[in-house]
Amino acid sequence: MSFVKTLATLAVGFAAAKGMEKFQKMGGGAGLARSMQSAASGGKIGPQVGALLERMQVPGGAGALGETLKKLGGQVQGTGDGAAMGLGGLMSALGGAAWAGSGNARDMLGALGSGTPPSGTMELNAQLMIRAMIQAARADGEIDADEQARLDEVLEDLDLDERAFVAAEMARPVDPEALAAETGSHQRTAVYAVSVVTTNMDSPAERAYLDRLAAALHLGAAARQRVHKAMRLPQVL
Q: How many domains is the chain built from?
């Protein structure tokens, strides 16, 4: 059982559930999509995402993206370009948090790109990030039945305990203050960054959720700006 793997699989699952067009409007996907606007059109998106991760100085870059996709199971690999976009969004978020000074995010990136089993502390951090990602995705209540079915299909590669954990988190009330209360000072930037991955940046309600979360985390504007800049996202006001 690995909650680091679950975190990566969930990022891919949200990309598959929302579809490429919707996901590209969301946090991590939006940043990657903006960066790819000048890239050559057509062909597979995976190599473009990998190259962008390297330019964004995400540790491991294209190599880590490819290796992690191989490890996540057949259901994930079957989502094709959506898998690259979802995992790329997560890696850009963790890279942004690491660039803003988060050692936890840097360690998580290392675990995603290597075959080294994650430590117990890293697994606990991954559980917290899973909670953050799910809370942000549900901030406007828009996970419909079809999206849930696509998400469940990708999550089939997880074991029963991992799926039960995700299901329990999906049933929790959306409460950024409660999430922040469970977040240690060294986890704040990473929790915020992975929340951005599943937030629709065009939605006032979801941007308001991020504002509430940042306030509850005592994460100042400068720290948020660093994360958004690294993820190629619009700056916060």
A: 1
